[in-house]
Amino acid sequence: MAKKALVTGGAGFIGSHVADLFVAEGYAVTVVDNLSSGRRENLNPAVTFVEGDIGASETAALVRTGGFDVVCHLAAQIDVRKSVTDPRFDATQNVLGSLNVLEAARQAKAEGGRAPRVVFASTGGALYGDFVQPPARETDPKDPESPYGIAKLSVEYYMAYYARQHGMECVALRFANVYGPRQDPHGEAGVVAIFCNRILDGRAMTTFGTGEQTRDYVFVKDVARANFLAATTALPPVGPLDARAFNVGTGIETSVNRLAELLQQAANSHTPVERAPARAGELQRSALVVDKAREQLGWTPQVSLADGLAETYRFFAERRVRSAGATA
Q1: 296 within domain boundaries
Q2: Residues labelled catalytic
Q3: Could you tell me if 113 and 198 lie in one domain?
Q4: Which residues form a coiled coil (predicted)?
Q5: Per-residue confidence (pLDDT) for residue 108, from 0 to 100
Q6: pLDDT digit string (tens) for 125-142?
Q7: How far apart are CA 99 and CA 116, in angstroms?
Q8: Chain centre to alpha carbon of residue 64
């Protein structure tokens, strides 16, 4: 009998790639997504799709009775700016919704079944805040600057509690700036999607301030593989908060200026770059140390930034062609 995986947010950018990989590995995959940002077109035809919210009682019942080996929990409110303007909504989705999943997994065990392993999509950039000199390690201090980061850290604390008190297997993956095919132009990593569309539109790419602010860009298929390994690899012993937390990035800082150059090369384009005033409070540098994921999960990023950007640009270009053909 095939093993079973549930992917929350599995119609979204990252979640759909995670679902694809589990399908390829022979799992019976169920996707739960409310389609607030996910797209039906992202769904693998082999998955069982359930339209629903992670905070709903129906989702809890699915987790509790579904007999899943793993729940990859990627459903979330992902917009840092929205978390600032409406922190209660952010907490409702990202904290209470996650608690609904965790408590249902606990109840599965309490009712005589088995608790699925829960792999949680946390954040690297927003978790460590501005006070950690990059690249950040898992054990560095956490001091989030946004409600979004606070919510993600809160869920990690709940997961550590469920591991210690209820013997559950909970893993937190702290993503760097994920980019790749199917990406929406939201969040800091969304600059890749924004730049791809600007090039295709023949419009200038905009950088803020000097353009020398850096991020750690990791390709979405590498992130999907990190999820699979976190779901299937023997975990370290239960311990403090960081015991079962893993950074998922490249450890390489890339400036926005360099990102624009690489995309120009990928597109064989000379799209100009225009400057805009610096944004107040913007994090200037970010990168993650990923040694722990290599040593304990056997994971390393395999796709170079140049290759990943080239694949991402091809995706957006081909989608543009398909859209034009559909409306012709």
Answers
A1: no
A2: 148
A3: no
A4: none
A5: 94
A6: 888 877 788 999 999 999
A7: 14
A8: 24
In the three-class reduction of DSSP (H, G, I as helix; E, B as strand; rest coil), residue 207 is classed as strand
Range of the domain at 269: 180-216+251-286+303-327
CA distances from 295 to 44, 117, 173, 247 (A): 31, 20, 15, 12
Task: Specify the pLDDT at position 328.
Answer: 56
| Burial class of residue 234 (count of CB atoms within 10 Å of its CB; 0-12, 13-18, 19+) | exposed
295 in a structural domain: no
What total of structural domains would you count in the chain? 2
Q: Is 125 contained in some domain?
A: yes
Helix (H, G, I), strand (E, B) or coil at 17: helix
**Which pLDDT does position 298 carry in this prediction?**
98
Say if pTM beats, i.e. exceeds, 0.90: yes
Q: Is the Cβ–Cβ distance between 304 and 258 less than 8 Å?
A: no
* Residue type at 139 in one-letter notation: T
Which segments of the chain have a pLDDT < 50?
A: none
The CATH number covering residue 73 comes to: 3.40.50.720
31, 33, 35, 39: CA torsion to nearest 10: -30
Q: What is the pLDDT of residue 111?
A: 81
Residue 315 belongs to a domain with what CATH number?
3.90.25.10
156 occurs within a structural domain: yes
pLDDT in tens, 220-245: 999 999 999 999 999 999 999 999 99
